[in-house]
Design brief:
It is a single chain. By secondary structure, the chain is of the alpha+beta class. It has a domain at 34-173. Helices cover 54% and strands 14% of the residues. A two-stranded antiparallel sheet has the order 1-2. Helix 5 packs antiparallel against helix 6. The longest helix is centred in the last third of the chain and has 29 residues, at 143-171. The radius of gyration is 26 Å and the shape is extended.
């Protein structure tokens, strides 16, 4: 007896709320620099990293734009630092997944110049150290180790908050605070002095 052909599965139709979120996602994706992933290859004792792109020059330029620089030497230093962050241990190899995760953290901050890029790399390092410390704390059994990891975790969390504030202050460096005083005189001759403040720069 011949088998009855099954009808193809009906494609999933997102709900109205899901469509709204998907539209927002698509807009976000379009506004994101198309950064290629990085690949790591080992030749002897040397670890070489490069964009996984058909044209290496284009790949490097996209990476440079993503981290806020036009300096080839700077991007090489930045990538070397990110590679070291991606190595989970002194003898463990750097995996492409870990390297691209480090780069994604920096890219997500959207640095606009080299100073912001350096701060973003530091923030990436602190974030990864925070997560590592949190994982160690979750499995610690002895009181000594629990207290040690708690102390380190608190310091790292405070450092990350300080870095966010530093980035915020640096990005507001071009803003000016303008204070304008205006005087209103009532019919009785009483003067009321008001202050209007514009801008949020430090």
């Amino acid at each position: 007896m011949a088998k009855t052909a099954q009808a193809p599965a009906k494609p999933y139709e997102p709900t109205p709320r899901e469509n709204k979120a998907l539209s927002a996602f698509e807009l976000r994706r379009q506004n994101t620099i198309p950064t290629p992933v990085m690949k790591a290859t080992k030749k002897g004792k040397d670890l070489r990293i490069a964009p996984d792109h058909e044209d290496k020059e284009t790949g490097y330029k996209l990476i440079m734009e993503a981290i806020g620089t036009a300096d080839p030497d700077f991007v090489q230093i930045a990538l070397e630092q990110l590679t070291k962050l991606a190595i989970p241990g002194a003898t463990a190899p750097c995996t492409p997944e870990a390297l691209n995760a480090s780069l994604a953290l920096v890219r997500g901050i959207r640095p606009q110049d080299e100073v912001e890029a350096m701060l973003a790399i530091q923030m990436s390092a602190i974030h990864m150290a925070t997560m590592t410390t949190a994982a160690r704390l979750s499995v610690a059994k002895e009181v000594t180790w629990i207290e040690l990891h708690e102390k380190a975790l608190n310091k790292l969390a405070r450092t990350f908050t300080t870095q966010i504030e530093a980035l915020k202050r640096y990005r507001s460096k071009g803003e000016q605070k303008v204070t304008v005083e205006h005087v209103t005189v009532n019919e009785g001759g009483q003067a009321i002095v008001g202050t209007v403040t514009q801008g949020g720069g430090v």
